[in-house]
Amino acid sequence: MEIEKIVETIISNAKGLTNDELTKCRSEYDPIYLNDRITHHRKISNRQNITLFLLVIFAILAFVVVVFGAKVESGTMSWIRGVVTGYFVAIIFLMPKTFKNHSSIASTLSLIKTLREEQKKM
Questions:
Q1: Whether residue 2 has pLDDT greater than 80
Q2: Are 48 and 97 in contact (CB under 8 A)?
Q3: CA distance 113 to 31
Q4: What is the pLDDT of residue 96?
């Protein structure tokens, strides 16, 4: 199978690629652009992991507030509510970045980059 057909099959099955990424993957090999987009998606993938971690911490803190809220003195309870509110605000700002699977997009672009480099060697 030709590399062009393989790349087209990968692109047609990939989800989440932007129109620019689709165009660049179909056109002539541009290593600078692909490296930039791979780095971009890996950074966002790391942010997704951090957001997931923050969600878990938020859930634990919310559970603590609900279960032990009546037993904790008011000063400590105010501090805990402030922390929970801070986590909630952070999650609201980070949440929109978590709806795409950026690690999958980075892997797809890396595969296309590898195929293009192999094609160049031939």
A1: yes
A2: yes
A3: 7
A4: 66
Instruction: Find, among 34, 27, 28, 42, the residue nearest to 101 by Cα.
Output: 42
CA–CA gap between residue 105 and residue 98 (Å, rounded): 13
pTM listed for this prediction? 0.70
Which residues, in sequence order, are CB contacts of 87 under 8 Å at separation 6+?
54, 57, 58, 61
DSSP 37: H
* Cβ neighbours around 34 below 10 Å, total: 20
Span 70-89, mean pLDDT?
78
What are the structural domain ranges in the chain?
Answer: 31-121
> With 80 as the cut, is the pLDDT of residue 72 above it?
no
Q: DSSP code of 27?
A: S
- Let me know: does 21 contact 109? Beta carbons within 8 Å: yes
At how many degrees (to 10) do helices 31-68 and 74-94 cross? 150
pLDDT in tens, 38-59: 999 999 888 888 878 877 887 7
